[in-house]
Amino acid sequence: MLGSGLLLVAILAFLSVMVLVSVWQQKIRGKLPPGPIPLPFIGNYLQLNRKDVYSSITQLQEHYGPVFTIHLGPRRVVVLYGYDAVKEALEDNAEEFSGRGEQATFNTLFKGYGVTFSNGERAKQLRRFSIATLKDFGLGKRGMEERIQEEAGCLIKMLQGTCGAPIDPTMYLSKTVSNVISSIVFGDRFNYEDKEFLSLLQMMSQMNQFAASPTGQLYDMFHSVMKYLPGPQQQIIKDSHKLEDFMIQKVKHNHSTLDPNSPRGFIDSFLIHMQKEKNFNSEFHMKNLVMTSLNLFFAGSETVSSLLRYGFLLLMKHPDVEAKVHEEIDRVIGRNRQPQYEDHMKMPYTQAVIHEIQRFSNFAPLGIPRRITKDTSFRGFFLPKGTDVFPIMGSLMIDPKFFSSPKDFNPQHFLDDKGQLKKIPAFLPFSIGKRSCLGYSLGKMQLFLFFTTILQNFRFKFPRKLEDINESPKPEGFTRIIPKYTMSFVPI
């Protein structure tokens, strides 16, 4: 009886604390943007569609407006919805919104190190160095173009080897795109059948999928407890160790073969800078080198290949669009030379198609979380330092003020009355502000060169009826994923 009484007292005490916390949160919320009332400990989690968080966010903004507050477990998040709110925050108040918000899945690996998931002076130093170094290795220049063309040539040979048989293009594209960033980071590329390479791609893909899943959302909210419990997060933790160990070995190899006068890639340049850096508190140390290299490898391996894969599905669903791209390629490039990046200036329709693939796919509509770097007044609200922010980049891609038929795949969204490419302010696939994607020029170049090179050599064929093509990405927690499919690359 005594034990039962103590248990009851403990439960009542716990509930009392939770009520007090909730009351305290409500006082804070009087200064914050409005939002649904959170429950103690779990916040607004039960009020969200865990399989489609983006739709839940869209519904909440219809009630609370473009700036509102939600609680994901004990974590408080301010949501920015629509072009005006996102631009005002990330561009007009860039410094205040330049922190990196919590992402437990990736923090399990990066732990606040590296250029992408760090904050403060560390993030600033690593970003400046990374941008300058990537430019040195030809990012946006001819040297980078040649690397992409080399990989595109290898991809064409692989696809020709399929002899028009139906295949899942996922790994073909992943290996090719990943090798571009590999050549930048390591100074060398992988053999396409390298087992370690394939294992890396698999682990990165699984980590991205877990982060977007309902279980990943729970881990994001309650990672301090869940990291000790059984479940799929334990595999993610193991894979994090494997990815870090891989990069440590890569760095050690480059260090043992380093020529300070001839850096082969990003790792070599970082090592050389480490040797020159005399400041005891410098951010140029081994942990940041390992994690920044992993940041770049992650970012450069997934997005472009996913966009290409989804683009092929859309072109099969819309054969009239594919035909127009083929016509422009034949007219501007022809069959006798490999596409060059400068060709994009003469190919407005192909560019419009690539832009529309990016807009329509909307893979990461919630954006990458930001964090308030200092107490900030925004639109009459008070945002305390350390508050996480979700800039809903996907809301820009479906804004009817900028796109006449946002639910339809329509390259005309990006063409003016004369058939020329037009700039749309809300089209920001690489985000904006001080934490925008630092590899955006590489991404743009890869999309154009891989897309045109493949279409120069192949026509696409779906093994079933066109009506069977499901072109709508499937909601999956915080993201949207491409339906699995097979297709044939028919040589021209």
From TrEMBL:
Binding residue positions for heme: C437
GO cellular component terms listed in the entry, alphabetical order: cytoplasm; cytoplasmic microtubule; endoplasmic reticulum membrane
Endoplasmic reticulum found in the keyword field: yes
Cofactor(s) recorded in Swiss-Prot or TrEMBL: heme
Secretion signal, residue range per the UniProt entry: 1-30
Membrane association type: Peripheral membrane protein
EC id: 1.14.14.1
Gene3D superfamilies assigned to the protein according to its UniProt record, in alphabetical order: Cytochrome P450
Subcellular location: Endoplasmic reticulum membrane; Microsome membrane
CDD domains per record: CYP2A
GO molecular function, one term: steroid hydroxylase activity
Pfam families for the chain: p450
GO BP, sorted A to Z: coumarin metabolic process; epoxygenase P450 pathway; xenobiotic metabolic process
Keywords recorded for this protein, A-Z: Endoplasmic reticulum, Heme, Iron, Membrane, Metal-binding, Microsome, Monooxygenase, Oxidoreductase, Signal
Predominant cellular place of this UniProt entry's protein: endoplasmic reticulum
Statement: the UniProt record of this protein carries the keyword Metal-binding: yes
Catalytic activity reported: an organic molecule + reduced [NADPH--hemoprotein reductase] + O2 = an alcohol + oxidized [NADPH--hemoprotein reductase] + H2O + H(+)
PROSITE patterns given in the database record: CYTOCHROME_P450 (PS00086)
Family membership noted in the UniProt record: Belongs to the cytochrome P450 family.
Described function: Cytochromes P450 are a group of heme-thiolate monooxygenases.
Protein name listed in UniProt: Cytochrome P450
